[in-house]
Structure formats: structure tokens, C-alpha cells
Amino acid sequence: MSSQQISATVTAVVAVLGGGVAGLSVAAALSHRVPVVVMEREDVLSMHSSGRSVALYDPTYGPPVMRALTSASYATYTDSSRQSPAWTSPLGSLYVATSEQANSLAELMKRSGNDEFAVRHLKPDELRCMVPALKSDLFVGAAYQAAALSIDTAAVLDFYRRTILQNGGRILLSSAPISIEQGGGRWKLRTSEHLVVCETILNASGAWADEVARQLSVPTIGIEPRKRTAAMCTVDRLDMVANAPFVFDIDERWYFRREPGGIIVSPADESPTAPCDAQADEYDVAVAIDNVEKATVLSIKRVVRSWAGLRSFAPDHELVTGRDPAIPGIAWHVGLGGFGFQTAPAAAELCAGLILDGAVPSRLAAYGITVDAVTVSRLRPSIAA
Ligand SMILES: Cc1cc2nc3c(=O)[nH]c(=O)nc-3n(C[C@H](O)[C@H](O)[C@H](O)COP(=O)(O)OP(=O)(O)OC[C@H]3O[C@@H](n4cnc5c(N)ncnc54)[C@H](O)[C@@H]3O)c2cc1C
Q: Are 70 and 56 contacting, i.e. CB atoms less than 8 angstroms apart?
């Protein structure tokens, strides 16, 4: 072997395909115990979904397992002693309901528990006090989540990146595998510059999860990427949202959040699309602006920046994580939907526990999280585990 070939060989226990929050968080969790390598197709990390979120942590938001993982991530997200800069700041979230949406509000109040993440019912006059910009006569009430946080997503991603490197892991950019072979209990993944040899491949490729599955000759699981649009706008009366929480239409038909110098608006679109570098469509931005102008007394003055990203869902909208019981040496961490950041600390801990110990960590089992709820097997019952 030439020295050039030797320097290009990377050996790890786990090779992670995908350098978004999914791949980086799990690689960081694994790197404390085993050698890892992250392979990212792009020449920078997190340029797809993970670079496009609106950075909300909200334990009210999402389907049951996602909410449990979000609650289980709260301690990490609020432990400022371990973070510099702090990963989160207080925000709060408000789910507003018109008279036609009274049932949705009642359902949300009903499913809210009595714990630290319980929501509080607000009447229209309380709404007006909290967000003077809202046309409170349009709404019969709202649910308020005081525990919602704003996440510094760049700080979180950078922490995971540094953890991987500090633990001796590798991060390879511009490195999608060109070929993948298996033999002797090892995988060999070739890129134009590297040969990666590993025991387990973790598919953390977001919207590309089924594409990667095909390349691995593994049955696909029906991951559906859906486009979501957002736009940062200046408004005429910023003082009227000065201390506003994140405001959702209770049926998620629009939302906005305050920012320094303006607000971020979204039509909460969910258009199914092929995996791609998603771009904002002017029409979707216009719908977002129209919705927010109808619900508030604000006028949007200027769109400073608009963007779109893909939220990728499993058919049941829950996380798919852990080893693939049908295919030795393959694991998954996909289907993070619109919850990839708010669940990241606990979801990564879960995936690492399932890969290395074959079990849900006991801390997470206490939140009701089970293997059955997150295993890939639930999505293809016809394949014997
Ligand atoms: C507009 C918007 C707002 C959002 N707001 C929030 C929010 O407020 N809170 C929240 O928690 N979540 C939010 N989300 C969701 C969150 O951003 C996603 O759940 C999360 O980023 C998904 O991370 P990921 O790592 O799975 O995907 P990605 O970040 O897309 O990463 C997947 C990576 O895999 C790489 N890849 C693909 N194929 C290969 C291959 N063959 N080899 C190597 N690499 C490959 C891609 O290049 C990509 O970098 C939002 C999403 C959008 C779009």
C-alpha cells in the first residue's frame, strides 16, 4: 500500500452518514465510548434542514414520542453551567384559537398534563396583555407554554462538532460514499478521497434517508420530506410584539416569532417534495405575511430574508432510531420532522444507547420511551426482525 492510500483510510466503529443535527448529535454521544467518523456530502456541515430551523424548543409541540424526547431534553437545554454561550433563552409559546378552533384548544388543554410542562389557558383579555399586536377579538382563547425556549442552534451544532473532534472522532466533508461493500463483519465505504472501514453505518441523512437506504441495499421506510418556508420581516409596530412568545395558530396554519429588528413569519407549509436544496417560493412567503397581518394589527414593511427547508417525516411522524433488527451493521436516526433540535439531546442519548447497549437508557425509559415506539421495524412489519 502507498502512504497516500494509508493516510486516506479511516477506521471507526460507527460511520455516520449525514452532518446535520441528527448525525452530529449522535456521533457526539457515541464518541465518548467508541471511535466515530461523520461523513457529510456537502462541503460544510448542517447546510440543509439543520441550518434553516426557527430554533424553537417547545414541549407542547409534536406527536407523543417527540414530546417525550423534548421534555427529556429540557435539563440539558437549561443547564447553563455546562454551556458557554448558553444554548437557550426563555421565550414561551402561545397557541391561539378562533371560535372555529375551540375544539382544538379544548383538546390541547386536555392532553396537557399537570407537570412542569403543563400549558395554561388564556382568555382573550389575557392574550391582549401578553401580545398587544394580536387582534384578540378574533380569538376565543389560547394555550400558553411557559417552558418554551429559544435555542441557539449554532452553539448546539458547534458543541456537537467540538465534542466529536475532542474525543478523537473524524468529520469528513464532501464525502458521500461512492461505493459501499460489506465483508468479514466490516463495511467499506469509498469516497473520492477516503476509504472508511467500520462495523456499523448510521443513516442520519435527513431527507435523503431512503436514497441512502437504496445505496445500502436496505429496504426503504417511506421517509417523506416536506418543505417549510420562513421569512424574516420588518414590521411597523415592533413595540407591540416586544416581549411576545412564539405565536402559533393552534392548528398550525401559520406562526410568527419576534426577533431583534422584526419577526419571522411562516405559512407552516408542508408540501411533499423530493430531497433537494429547498428554496422559498414567493407565494408561500406572501401567504405567511397575509396570515400574520390578518391575525394581528401589524403591517409587514419589508422581507429581509426568506428561506425554506425540508422537514422529513416517517409515515407515523415519530422518530426512527437505533439498530435495524433486520440488517446487521445498519442503524437509523431519521424522521426528525420539525422537532430535530428540540429533541436532540435526548434523541442522541437514545440512539447511542440503542446502538451500544441494545436498550433504551433508563433515564429515558422513565419518560415512557420504548424500543417498539422508535424502531425501524414498526414501519415494515412484513420483514421478520
Ligand atoms: C423552516 C424550518 C423550521 C424548523 N424549525 C424547527 C424548530 O423550531 N425546532 C426544531 O426542533 N426543529 C425545527 N425544524 C426541524 C429541524 O430543522 C430538523 O428536524 C433537523 O434539522 C433535521 O436534521 P437532520 O440532521 O435529520 O437533517 P439535515 O440537517 O438535512 O442533515 C442531513 C444531512 O445528510 C447529508 N447527506 C445526505 N445524503 C448523504 C450521503 N449519501 N452521504 C453523506 N451525507 C449525506 C445532507 O447533506 C445533510 O447535511 C425546522 C425545519 C425547518 C425546515
A: no
Q: Are residues 254 and 355 in the same domain?
A: no
Q: From atom 5 of ligand 1, which residue's Cα is the shortest distance away?
A: 53
| Selected residue with higher pLDDT from 2 and 136 | 136
| Average pLDDT, integer, range 79-107 | 93
How far CA 67 is from CA of 25, 72, 162, 317, in Å, comes to 18, 8, 27, 12
Our count of domains for the chain comes to 2
Name all residues whose Cβ lies below 6 A of ligand 1.
17-23, 39-42, 46, 48-50, 52-56, 176, 204-208, 212, 228, 230, 309-311, 336-342
In a domain? residue 78: no
SS3 220: coil
Task: Report the alpha-carbon distance of residue 142 to residue 232 in Å, rounded.
Answer: 24
Give the Cα separation of 62 and 337 in Å (integer). Answer: 9
pLDDT in tens, 139-198: 999 999 999 999 999 999 999 999 999 999 999 999 999 999 998 999 999 999 999 999
